Amino acid sequence: MFLVASHNAHVGLNQAMDVLRSGGSAVDAVETAIRAVEANADDHSVGLGGYPNLLGEVELDAGLMQGHDLTSGAVAALRGYLHPISIARQVMERLPHVFLVGDGAVRFAAEIGAKPATLLTPEAQETWARGLQPELASDDLARMNKRHDLSRWVEIATDPERTRGTVNVIACDRQGHLCVGVSTSGWAWKYPGRVGDSPVAGAGFYADDRYGAAACTGTGEMAIRAATAHSVILYMKIGLSLGEAGRRAMHDLNDLGGRYIAGMNFIAVDRQGNHIGFSSYEDATYLHFAETMEAPEELPRIHIPLRQRWVKVQEDPA
Ligand code: ASP
């Protein structure tokens, strides 16, 4: 039994390990850990306190996958509910579908009795407003949803180096089954309705008991284009070791063209329980917590630099 996670999952890993130790399933452990992060208002990249989109609305994405049968559930652009990971789990367990978005996800959340919540904290709202000023005055901010030029603003407001974050958790239970889960509020100041890699199976997460599991944080558009999480698993399926598979998936990201290339990270495990983290940033870490340990250990990720280029089309929206 073990947990492997992004660093911000530390608030939920002890509880998740209790779940595993008491015989709970990998999906129970993943949901438990991620719910703790979603409820943590100090984490501005997940759930409560997450930074909002260009209109000042918090839109959440989450997804999970079980390795024993490759079942998966996800929600995206979900507003007004604190625990998208639990709603994603219910999509997986109750519906013949895998992925609900926007109003449909909200409707389903209400139908299953999920608790509505106000996600925008005063601190996150202040950061949102500051990000759009001084270009926009307070009156303009109040009228953001009347604007017809948001596509111009998204380029100005989105700074790939300071506005992102996601929680990743991989669990292996007593039966040896894997589950991976991911939850995020995505980029701050994103275009309304923008969905990143986090709720997309194969991009932001993937688990297959026969090979391993992987989950991403970072520039979601890149992980979607390179199918990063699935690539890690596929490389292991064709015989590469965990380390080689991860390196190949990082190099695939480096092969992407286009104007919007920035940072990427992922964690991964193989079916023997070996674990690894990769990052395009120096000094990045991840967490590993085995059943025999008293507390999670923080381990360095392997640093593979990506050629950064982030070229804005319009520099001046005025
Ligand atoms: N991958 C997330 C997204 O693109 C954000 C992040 O992890 O930084 O929405």
Strand order across the largest sheet: 4-3-2-6-5-1-12-13
- Rounded to an integer in angstroms, the radius of gyration calculated over CA atoms is 19 Å
Number of helices: 10
Number of domains: 1
Q: Give the integer mean of the pLDDT values.
A: 93
Our measurement of the CA-to-CA distance between the termini, rounded to an integer number of angstroms, reads 56 Å
What name does the CATH topology carry? Glutamine Phosphoribosylpyrophosphate, subunit 1, domain 1
Which small-molecule ligands are present, each listed once?
aspartic acid
Order of helices and strands: EHHEEHEHHHHEEEEHHHEEEEEEE
What can you tell me about this protein's structure?
With 318 residues, the chain is an alpha+beta fold. It has helices spanning 10-21, 26-38, 84-94, 102-111, 122-132, 138-142, 150-157, 220-226, 228-237, 242-254, and strands spanning 2-6, 60-66, 72-78, 99-101, 167-172, 178-184, 205-208, 212-218, 260-261, 264-270, 275-279, 285-290, 297-300, 302-303, 309-310. It has a single domain, classed as (Glycosyl)asparaginase (Glutamine Phosphoribosylpyrophosphate, subunit 1, domain 1), CATH 3.60.20. It contains ten helices and 15 strands. It has an eight-stranded mixed β-sheet with strand order 4-3-2-6-5-1-12-13. Strands 7-8-10-11-14 form a five-stranded mixed β-sheet, with helices on one face. Strands 9-15 form a two-stranded antiparallel sheet. Strand 3, helix 3 (84-94) and strand 4 (99-101) form a beta-alpha-beta unit. It is globular, with a radius of gyration of 19 Å.
